[in-house]
Design a protein that fits this description.
Elements: E1 2-6, H1 10-20, E2 28-33, H2 37-46, E3 51-53, H3 56-60, E4 67-70, H4 77-86, E5 90-94, H5 101-114, E6 118-121, H6 128-139, E7 145-154, H7 173-189, E8 195-202, E9 208-217, E10 221-229, E11 237-241, E12 244-248, E13 256-261, E14 267-270, H8 279-290, H9 301-318
Helix pairs in contact: 4-5, 5-9, 7-9
Amino acid sequence: MKWGIIGTGVIAKKFAATIHQMQGEGQGLWAVASRTQESAQVFALDNAVPRAYAPYEAMLADRDVNAVYIATPNTLHFDNARAALLAGKHVLCEKPFTLNARQARELFALAEEQGLFIMEAFWIRFLPLLKVLREIIASGEIGDVVHMRSDYGFIPAPTHSVRKRDAGLGAGALMDIGIYNLGFAHMVMDSAPTGFHATVRRNEHGTDNFSAVLLTYPKERSASITTSIGMHLPREAAIFGTEGEITLPDFQMAEALTVKPNGKAPREIRIPFDINGFEYEIREVDRCVALGMNTSDILRMQDTLTVMETMDAIRDSWGMRFPGEV
């Protein structure tokens, strides 16, 4: 697969580094595109990318590029992904996939119409340890899941502070990292929530600095998630069942968990990443494209839509919409 990257930020650099370490698997980084030629050239030089383009559309005209990784601000995801699909490229788009579920549905429909693959880059869905986690839950080792909780909060560097909060970029804690909490809860519960109660603290940009959300699910199950930009909240998670519990010291960079069945000795499971965690979603794109699929059967279209619909509902309850959002 010959990849092109749209965007030149921190996440794009991590993706580039991952691709370079997967050359033995047939992955190659072919091009990068930015808003300015200077930015594209600097990124290309620093990250060993053969071709640099500006504007974005110039790279999409490169017939050698098979797939595009979109790493631009949230407000650009829909337009960038749509343009890539119309240019005949497969798409891996950073989370959040789009600003809302309406945009997401349109992209999935367009990918099917064009005969191309598209997927949200919700990379933790493909981590080997979290696959084992789902297998443990399905086995009934901790009984029926009753409740789960997860937290995620960080203090951004001064150079990134405004970008992480700017409504004009589709930012805020929920969109930036709350999606990890919601996506993890969806992995555990494997169903859409039936309701929620959410509290929020806003910043001077009008977006959310902190939120605590209690979600309810079928069969009297629940999940509590806490998200913050501006406070450090360890990425810990716990899943409580009728016959035991599972704890993760870091549910996002998930390489270890502990299973604690009632009345039995706990056992720890560790599965380190092959590279840095991004390799698993890249392999999934390659697998699905080879099979002629439009979407993944692991991170399904409905998984992305369920999380997007939940975020839409939460933001609606706060009266928070982004400029120009329909």
